[in-house]
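Sequence in, structure out. Go.
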Amino acid sequence: MPAPVPPRAPDAGAVLAPAPDLQAEALRLAERVRREVARAVAPGRIDSELSLLNRFAEHEDIDVVVGPVLAEIIAAALLAARLTSGLADPTTGAAAWRALDGLAPHPAPGIGRLELDVPTRRLRMGRGTVLDLAPVADAWAADRTVQVFTEAHPGHALVAEVGGACAVGGPPAGAAALVGAAPTAPAAGPRSGVEPGVRAALVERGRRGLAVVESSGIVLVNPVTGAAATSPWDRVVVAAQSAVEAQAYARAVHVLGQDAPGWVEACGADGEFTGSRPGSTFRRRLRTPGWPGRTGRAAA
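Output:
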């Protein structure tokens, strides 16, 4: 079982724009989005909307109008659950805390306990539901930063990364060139840990979202059992149409297990899956057929 850590605050992220003046503006935008996300979902802030919702839902059903950012993040979480048939479930918050405390697992209540009317932002949440929105909030923030920037600066590309989720926007050729030229040093730019050439090839294939999820040190809960998932994969990288989709598939992979490569391909995404063989120093790497430079199995 992985050693879990508590939910965390939103990542400050990193951005990469094609010119210094655009870079400065992109940094300001990324910080603004980060602050908005923190006010909505940061678990360390007792006054964040999510903290208040989870606290009130301990004792009663909730029927409330939420803020626009929280509404969009919850909508993204519900989409992630639907895309993964419930494997990426935002209602696993209580199960994650039980895993942290070493208590017997309880199944997650599931998204049937959530009802969000998007136009009015009215949220209904059943008593006892605890939401964990940190992963989807990272991905939403990356997508949102790119969306706002490219709408304000048509014709220019942007790369935005928050946590392990990365979004790319702008003209395909410019986006691929920007990603391909991105430095790999964390301090210098977006830091997905995927080679720039591979990322550029994925962008050329129309993949605008990328997510990297490592199984060590995080809570990966099986929603059906409520127990911490035992993943055969140490590291999963998924590329999809958006960062939210990529993050959803990458987290679901750790719950799904050995069948994940074929499942990701069937979902219309690309992926790379790295795992350690028990009792061996060799690592295996599997890639979906569309992954750039695919070589099938490899030992490292």
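Check: The CA atoms of residues 60 and 272 lie 43 Å apart. Residues 1-12, 184-189, 295-300 have pLDDT under 50 and may be disordered.
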